[in-house]
Amino acid sequence: MEVLARFHKSRSAQRVGLHINVYEAAPSICSFEVAGDVDADTRDVFDNALGSMIDEGWTRIILDATKLSFMNSDGIGAVIAHLKQVRERGGDIKFLNLHGKGATVVEVLGLKKFLQLYASMDKAISAFEKPVPEELYKEVQWLFFASNRGKFYHTEWCARGKRIKYRNRIRFASKEDARKSGKKPCPKCGRGGR
Ligand SMILES: [Zn+2]
After folding, report:
1. Ligand 1 centre and the CA of 177: distance in Å?
2. 86: CA distance to ligand 1 center in Å?
3. Range(s) of the domain holding residue 43
4. Count of domains forming the chain
5. Please, which contacts does 92-95 make with residues 24 or more away whose CB atoms are closer than 8 Å?
6. Residue 185 C-alpha to ligand 1 middle, in angstroms?
7. What pTM, to 2 d.p., does this model score?
8. Ligand 1 centre from 64 Cα, in Å?
9. 191 and 105 share one domain
């Protein structure tokens, strides 16, 4: 298969870097193959890589996690941040073979009901034949994060929230969870949860 794009971040010998190869898996569907670690340190590369494919017009994306060694909530959060945009354009980001920590994050944050997870490339590809139900992308905006030091919680799309360093972010699956930890809605994104 022809490689459409490559992205990477190398690290010292002791730490696994991040390598992303993007292929055309089927007409107008790309396979975004992620190897290595997606964490606070490599999250920006991952986020920008995903964003640049979307900017190029790819809205049907299969995030192939088969060779992924680690993905924490920073990586899952980056996917969520792009999900609404691609779904509104009739596309989706579907996960293939998500395992380990990434799968645990999805489970613990209750994201299973709006992320689409597959165990085979063929199934992921054929899943694009059906549109994603609208309620799934409406619901996906109810995901929040805050700075561990700040008083406000934000949605994934808040310009003000974007300034918070990834390593300082704590995440919540609901407003209730955010409030329970003592955070208040952000004045910019907090009204109506947007
Ligand atoms: Zn905000």
Report:
1. 16
2. 21
3. 3-133
4. 2
5. 92/59, 92/60, 92/61, 92/116, 92/127, 92/128, 92/132, 93/32, 93/50, 93/61, 93/62, 93/63, 94/61, 94/62, 94/63, 94/118, 94/124, 94/127, 94/128, 95/62, 95/63, 95/65
6. 7
7. 0.77
8. 31
9. no
